[in-house]
Each structure stands twice: as structure tokens, then as C-alpha cells.
Amino acid sequence: MKKTIALLTGGTTGEWVVSVKSAATIAQNIDSDLYDVYKIMLNDKGWFYEPADSVKIEIDKNDFSLTIEGRKIKFDGVFIAIHGSPGEDGKLQGYFDMIGIPYTTCDALTSSITMNKGYTKAIVDGIDNLHVAKSVQIFKDGNYSVSQIKQDLKLPYFVKPNSGGSSIGMSKVKHTDDLEEALAKAFKEDTQILIEEFVSGREFSIGVFGAEGKINVLPTTEVIPANEFFDFEAKYTPGATEEITPGRMSDEELVRVQQVVTDVYKKLNCRGVVRIDYFLEHETGKFYFIEINTIPGQTATSFIPQQVAAMGLSLKTFYTRLMKETLG
């Protein structure tokens, strides 16, 4: 018996563009023998299904159902492909929990906590072999001192919106005179900001997913941006970044990294597929946690599809394993 699945795309932040591309990849690779898929767009104007041959059909939010030509369609599960709010920050997860529909991502609590970079770092700090860069977290209307930040942190540092994604609003500050401008840019995206000391190291990104009741670690991707850092342009412009999958690590580093990211997945109570970004510090090889994405990109150029291919899996098999684990 086929399951009826809603593939949720869009969102209410600047990341909706990426979300639409991710949903296109997912839709092309879901096993149509197992699942009937309805792509549902969520944006500021509403939640709706848009068939190719007719007008938009609004979702009934009371039970997340569709009525098409008098026939009511209810969903067995939801594949959430919305980056940013409300897909990645726990809001939709809370809604689906309340109406009793399973979904493919982390639960509401984990999703909302991991959207906040500062809170996430506080939770994972203490895991064996995991290090976090020294940082200061400030609030827009809070009582913070720019001169104190300059005293407490060593240059250069990254200034980033605490709950943003896709590196929107992020700056690398090399001179203390540029800090105020970087703060203003980040505060346009969020009311909380993380200012973090720069770690000189090689940057990697690694997918971790739950399937068949166990935690699986994908091959890692080494990220070598042509830009100063891995910003929005570097992330979404083909060729702007050199990406090596699997990334170059020694056997010892690989074993250590796999253990650390498995521990992070457990400690944050993750489910579905997540992506963890980290540095291996140049001099020491220490693992420095950057951030976790609980709804990582699935576009043609995204890391997870690259890593799935490097593992020798088809995306169809990968998504089937994910959905069987999370949707039952």
C-alpha cells in the first residue's frame, strides 16, 4: 500500500529559494512505487498545493488535508524541505506533533535549539574531542559593550546572526574598526548575534542520518572557498568553491570525526538527516564545531547528495531509508 506524503517547501525567509531547489531534487528521487507525493508550498500568502494543470488549492490547517474535486486527501507523513523558518526552527514540527502527523526531521525542541548557534555550542561543549571557538553572544537591545568585545576576543572574528542560515548577514572582521558595521549587518537578520574567534583550519561538512535504528555517518566534504569564507555566494554559485568528497583526512582523523559527530547527533537528540560543519585546526588537527543544520540543502550542488553518491547510494535509496525510519 502506497503512502501519501506531503513534500513541504518554501518558507518565510530568504532561504526559500534554496528550499524550492531542494524540494525539486527530493521530488525527482522519491520512490513512486512506495509514495504518492504532493508538493506543498508554504509562504507568507498561505499553504497550498499547486497542480500543474489548475489553480492553487489551499491546505486545511485544522488537519493538514487537501480537498481535490470533492476528494479529501490526508497525509501519512511530511517530508519537510524548508530551510530557515518555519521549517527548521521547530514551529512546523510542533504543529505536526499536535495534529499527529509524522515528519522527516528532528523534533520541535531539537529544531528550535539548533537554530540558535550559541545555545547549540553550549550543549555540545564537553563532548570528547570536540572544541568550540571562543565567542560572545549579544542581543540587539541588550547591554553589550563593543569595546569589551574587542578586548575579549582575538582578531580576526566572524560576526553571524545567531539563527540565520546560508551565511546570510555574516561577516569576517579583520580590523576592530569594522566591528560596528558587521554588527549592523547581522542585526538586520536577527536580534541575537554570535561573535566568534576565527579558527585557522581546514573546513569540512559531514552528513549524519538515522536509518534501520542506527546512526550512519556519510563521507565528509572538504570545503575550499575561493572567497574569504564560505559565504552565500560561495555556497550557491557553481564553481565558486572547491569541494572534495570524500574530504582528505587521515584514518585517525576520520575515526575521531565519525565518533564526534555521532556523539553530537545523540546529544542533540537528532533524527532524520543533519549536516555538521567543522574545522580541523591547522597546527593541532583538533576538531572545532562550527554549526549543525537539521534540514541540510538537497539541491544538485548541495553536500548531502554529493556525500550520498560518494557512499555508493542512490538518492532514491537514501530517501526511502530516511522516510522509513522517520515516517514509519
From TrEMBL:
<dbReference type="InterPro" id="IPR011127">
    <property type="entry name" value="Dala_Dala_lig_N"/>
</dbReference>
<feature type="binding site">
    <location>
        <position position="291"/>
    </location>
    <ligand>
        <name>Mg(2+) 2</name>
    </ligand>
</feature>
<comment type="pathway">
    <text>Cell wall biogenesis; peptidoglycan biosynthesis.</text>
</comment>
<dbReference type="GO" id="GO:0046872">
    <property type="term" value="F:metal ion binding"/>
</dbReference>
<feature type="binding site">
    <location>
        <position position="277"/>
    </location>
    <ligand>
        <name>Mg(2+) 1</name>
    </ligand>
</feature>
<dbReference type="InterPro" id="IPR016185">
    <property type="entry name" value="PreATP-grasp_dom_sf"/>
</dbReference>
<protein>
    <recommendedName>
        <fullName>D-alanine--D-alanine ligase</fullName>
        <ecNumber>6.3.2.4</ecNumber>
    </recommendedName>
</protein>
<keyword id="KW-0133">Cell shape</keyword>
<keyword id="KW-0460">Magnesium</keyword>
<feature type="active site">
    <location>
        <position position="302"/>
    </location>
</feature>
<dbReference type="InterPro" id="IPR011761">
    <property type="entry name" value="ATP-grasp"/>
</dbReference>
<dbReference type="InterPro" id="IPR011095">
    <property type="entry name" value="Dala_Dala_lig_C"/>
</dbReference>
<dbReference type="GO" id="GO:0008716">
    <property type="term" value="F:D-alanine-D-alanine ligase activity"/>
</dbReference>
<dbReference type="GO" id="GO:0009252">
    <property type="term" value="P:peptidoglycan biosynthetic process"/>
</dbReference>
<dbReference type="InterPro" id="IPR005905">
    <property type="entry name" value="D_ala_D_ala"/>
</dbReference>
<comment type="function">
    <text>Cell wall formation.</text>
</comment>
<dbReference type="InterPro" id="IPR013815">
    <property type="entry name" value="ATP_grasp_subdomain_1"/>
</dbReference>
<dbReference type="InterPro" id="IPR000291">
    <property type="entry name" value="D-Ala_lig_Van_CS"/>
</dbReference>
<feature type="binding site">
    <location>
        <position position="291"/>
    </location>
    <ligand>
        <name>Mg(2+) 1</name>
    </ligand>
</feature>
<feature type="active site">
    <location>
        <position position="15"/>
    </location>
</feature>
<comment type="similarity">
    <text>Belongs to the D-alanine--D-alanine ligase family.</text>
</comment>
<keyword id="KW-0573">Peptidoglycan synthesis</keyword>
<keyword id="KW-0067">ATP-binding</keyword>
<dbReference type="Pfam" id="PF01820">
    <property type="entry name" value="Dala_Dala_lig_N"/>
</dbReference>
<feature type="binding site">
    <location>
        <position position="293"/>
    </location>
    <ligand>
        <name>Mg(2+) 2</name>
    </ligand>
</feature>
<keyword id="KW-0961">Cell wall biogenesis/degradation</keyword>
<dbReference type="Pfam" id="PF07478">
    <property type="entry name" value="Dala_Dala_lig_C"/>
</dbReference>
<keyword id="KW-0547">Nucleotide-binding</keyword>
<dbReference type="GO" id="GO:0005524">
    <property type="term" value="F:ATP binding"/>
</dbReference>
<keyword id="KW-0479">Metal-binding</keyword>
<keyword id="KW-0963">Cytoplasm</keyword>
<dbReference type="GO" id="GO:0005737">
    <property type="term" value="C:cytoplasm"/>
</dbReference>
<dbReference type="GO" id="GO:0008360">
    <property type="term" value="P:regulation of cell shape"/>
</dbReference>
<feature type="domain" description="ATP-grasp">
    <location>
        <begin position="122"/>
        <end position="324"/>
    </location>
</feature>
<feature type="active site">
    <location>
        <position position="166"/>
    </location>
</feature>
<keyword id="KW-0464">Manganese</keyword>
<dbReference type="GO" id="GO:0071555">
    <property type="term" value="P:cell wall organization"/>
</dbReference>
<keyword id="KW-0436">Ligase</keyword>
